[in-house]
Structure formats: C-alpha cells, structure tokens
C-alpha cells in the first residue's frame, strides 16, 4: 500500500461536530504532498479536524484561489513544454477535474504522509501549514510574476512529480454523498 495525500473539495470545512455534507474527490498522490496539493491548499489555509483520522491533521483552504494558483503555475510551466504531449494532457485533465469538483474549500488530508516518520503528526501538519505551504505559494507566485526562473526551471524539469497526481471521482478514501 502506498502512503498518499488526499485532496477533496467541500462547501463547508470539517469541524469537531461534523464533516461536510458533500465531499467531492479531487486528487491523491503517492508518497508525498506534491507541489500541486500545497498550492491548492495555499490560500486561507487553516488546520481542521481530519475527516479520516483522529488527530487534528486536516488542512482546509479557499478553493477558487488555490485552483487559480495551480492553474496559473501550470500555464508558466507549460511555456517551456509546448511539445510535451503528456504535460498538455495533464493540464487538460487537471483543469477539467478542478472545474467539475469545484466547491468553496479544498480539504487536504495528509495523515498517511505525516505518519511515515516517528514525528508527531499534528506537529508535522503545523509545520506544513506554517512553512511548507507558504513557501510553495511564495515560489509559485514569484515564478508566475517572472521573478523565480531557477525555481520554475526545476519544477518544469520534473513536472510529473509535482502535477501528475491521480485525479478522480473516487479516491482510496471516498465519502458517500
């Protein structure tokens, strides 16, 4: 079994009292929280109760801003990959799925990833929210603005590890709805 990060969309944030009524599956990624998931969880980011695990290790964020950021970055990454059919297909698939699964919030579930070490999972999520996600957003925004060419070149050279997640209507953990 691969450890995965899971990305969902919902019209409300999970709370101690309940999980959202309708949870839409967006993406899962093996063995890491990829750049795309960090960017989509990068606006209005807050720690929420997990919808899957007991510790408070869920992350919620604004859907519209997160989707716009990842699509904006895909656009500038693509400026160096015009002849890469796989990248073009990834962009089409990602864009269509984000439009289809649109909601008010992204909900990022990282429990399997943050549990791979002996570190405290809640502390790992706090570190992701206070460091990893804001750093990814700052780098992406600078690259989109034309001020981070070296970082952009590194993302472009390994685009699949950052963007080629599994996008689907059903993920390993799916919710009735």
Short description:
The protein is an alpha+beta fold and 177 residues long.
Summarize the helices and strands and which ones pair or pack.
Elements: E1 4-10, E2 23-30, H1 35-40, E3 46-48, E4 58-62, H2 63-78, H3 85-100, E5 105-109, H4 111-114, H5 121-144, H6 149-157, H7 159-163, E6 166-167
Antiparallel strand pairs: 1-2, 1-5, 2-6, 3-4, 4-5
Helix pairs in contact: 2-3, 2-5
Description of the structure:
The chain has 177 residues and is of the alpha+beta class. Helices cover 45% and strands 17% of the residues. It is built from seven helices and six strands, in the order ββαββααβααααβ. Strands 3-4-5-1-2-6 form a six-stranded antiparallel β-sheet. The protein is globular and about 50 Å long. The two termini are 26 Å apart. The model has no long low-confidence stretch (mean pLDDT 92).
How many E strands? 6
Query: Which outline best applies?
Result: globular
Largest sheet: 6 strands, antiparallel
Strand-pairing-aware structural class: alpha+beta
Helix content: 40-55%
What string, H for helix and E for strand, traces the elements in order? EEHEEHHEHHHHE
What fraction strand? 15-25%
The low-confidence runs, each spanning 5 or more residues with pLDDT under 50, are none
SS field, number of helical segments: 7
**Widest sheet: strand ordering:** 3-4-5-1-2-6
Question: What is the CA–CA distance across the termini?
Answer: 26 Å
Mean pLDDT, to the nearest integer, reads 92
* Rg estimate, integer Å: 15 Å
Tags for this model:
6-stranded antiparallel beta sheet; 7 helices; 177 residues; 45% helix; alpha+beta
């Amino acid at each position: 079994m691969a450890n995965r990060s899971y990305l969902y969309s919902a019209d409300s944030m999970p709370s101690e009292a309940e999980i959202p009524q309708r949870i839409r599956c967006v993406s899962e990624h093996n063995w890491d929280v990829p750049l795309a998931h960090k960017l989509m969880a990068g606006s209005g980011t807050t720690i929420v109760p997990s919808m899957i695990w007991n510790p408070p290790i869920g992350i919620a964020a604004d859907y519209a801003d997160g989707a716009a950021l990842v699509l904006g970055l895909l656009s500038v990454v693509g400026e160096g990959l015009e002849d890469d059919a796989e990248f073009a297909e990834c962009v089409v698939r990602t864009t269509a799925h984000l439009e289809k699964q649109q909601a008010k919030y992204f909900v990022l579930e990282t429990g399997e990833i943050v549990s791979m070490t002996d570190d405290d999972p809640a502390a790992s999520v706090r570190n992701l929210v206070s460091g990893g996600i804001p750093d990814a957003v700052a780098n992406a925004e600078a690259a989109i603005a034309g001020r981070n060419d070296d970082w952009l070149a590194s993302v472009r050279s390994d685009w699949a590890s950052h963007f080629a997640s599994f996008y689907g209507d059903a993920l390993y953990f799916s919710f009735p709805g």
